Amino acid sequence: MPAYKFYYFPIRGLGEAPRQIFALAGVEFENIGISDEKWETFQKTETPFGQMPLLEVDGKQIPQSFAICRYIASQHGLAGKTPFEAAWVDALADQYKDFNNDFKKFFYVQLGFEDGDKEEYKKEHGIPARDKFFPLIVKQIKDNGSGLLVGSSATWVDILIAEAVSRIAENVPGFFESYPEIIAHQQKVHSIPQIKKWIEAR
Amino acid sequence: MPSYKLIYFDVRGLAEVSRFLFYLSSTPFQDYEVSDAEWLTLQGKTPYGKLPILEVDGKTLAQSFAIARYLAREFGFAGNSPFECALVDALGDQFKDYWGELFPYFATCAGIKEFGNSNILRREVGEPARDKFFTMLERVAKENGSNGHLVGDSLTWIDLTVADHITTLNNFSDGFVDDRFPAVLAVREKVMNDPRLTEYLAKRPKRYF
């Protein structure tokens, strides 16, 4: 088993999904939190693209959260059971990224990272982004038939989306009121024993 | 052999990498071009309301890089180890981040959506995005051994993506990807001179982007 070191800020953010994938895969890893003070030096000396998260595998580095997720997941049966399923997992993750690029215009304001009128941004960016993306996810869950997004067992995109949904729901009360299937999916993923255990311990 | 149908507009855009993969592997496929008129009825039938989509024995795949990665894996252009595949993927993700920054300049030049004066956008959006991304790519290409590939020692879908993108950038503004980036330009040279692509490159329609 290679030695895995996972570097990110000591927050959930883009780091939580990769960590949960490790947990579900039952793979040990060193979970390294880089504080804001340490980040400036770390960024210049250690990171290929000047960003985190960063995964080190026996000393060799992989940047970019989705590349990291896919790498760990595909080594441990969490990336779809066939190449076609794996491609669907990838497509859903890319679609989520498109959603998040729009949604974060509102979310950063809601979280107080950026200035703005929360209600206005919610109406302009938050709700349209939600209503463009989540009906697609509801349809995917319904068509797939297992309560998960692709195939019959959890994949890394289930973890990715469940984490996003829980973070949004925690910070924007009632945001998924008209999306019960989305809440059901999030609860299903987070009740998987290894993920439940990770969440309780974090 | 499955039957493949690649469905896209009359542009190179996000699908050219997949077209290259079919030709590199000598895999027959239907290269289906959608007109603006047909798109009106087709759009609602696609998974995410966007193109390209790929049909594999009638089953649909969406999202340009998911399609490219799928084909690359099938045909042997995804990387020579799981680790190399991850590095290729990471560069693909980095390309997408760069693409988001470049978009106002790209969309204006391509005539898709106007964000302002294209000269001003080139200076204020295109050039900074280019400098940031291609400086990183140049370092990656050099650290990989300046062997004409971004990852490993053989052709991958990220080489193809970058090569075709340079064609577009230089169409918008001659010499845009300049000689500050010799190792990256060498990656493009290797793609454009690949004998498996010669026939396609000679016969494909001339497309601005």
Automatic annotation (TrEMBL), chain A:
Transmembrane intervals: none
Domain GST N-terminal: 2-80
Coiled-coil segments: none
Single GO biological process annotation from the record: glutathione metabolic process
InterPro entries referenced in this protein's UniProt entry, alphabetically: Glutathione-S-Trfase_C-like, Glutathione-S-Trfase_C_sf, Glutathione_S-Trfase, Glutathione_S-Trfase_N, GST_C, GST_superfamily, Thioredoxin-like_sf
Domain called GST C-terminal: residue spans: 82-202
Cited Pfam families: GST_C_3, GST_N
Single GO term (MF): glutathione transferase activity
SUPFAM superfamilies per the UniProt record, alphabetical: GST C-terminal domain-like, Thioredoxin-like
Protein's name in the database: Glutathione S-transferase
Automatic annotation (TrEMBL), chain B:
Protein name (database record): glutathione transferase
Key word Transferase present: yes
Keywords linked to the UniProt accession: Transferase
Gene Ontology MF term list: glutathione transferase activity
Coiled-coil residue windows: none
Class of this enzyme: transferase
Domain GST C-terminal: 81-209
Ranges of residues in domain GST N-terminal: 2-79
BP terms from Gene Ontology: glutathione metabolic process
Organism: Pristionchus fissidentatus
E.C. numbers: 2.5.1.18
Catalytic activity: RX + glutathione = an S-substituted glutathione + a halide anion + H(+)
PROSITE patterns: GST_CTER (PS50405), GST_NTER (PS50404)
Family of the protein in this entry: Belongs to the GST superfamily. Sigma family.
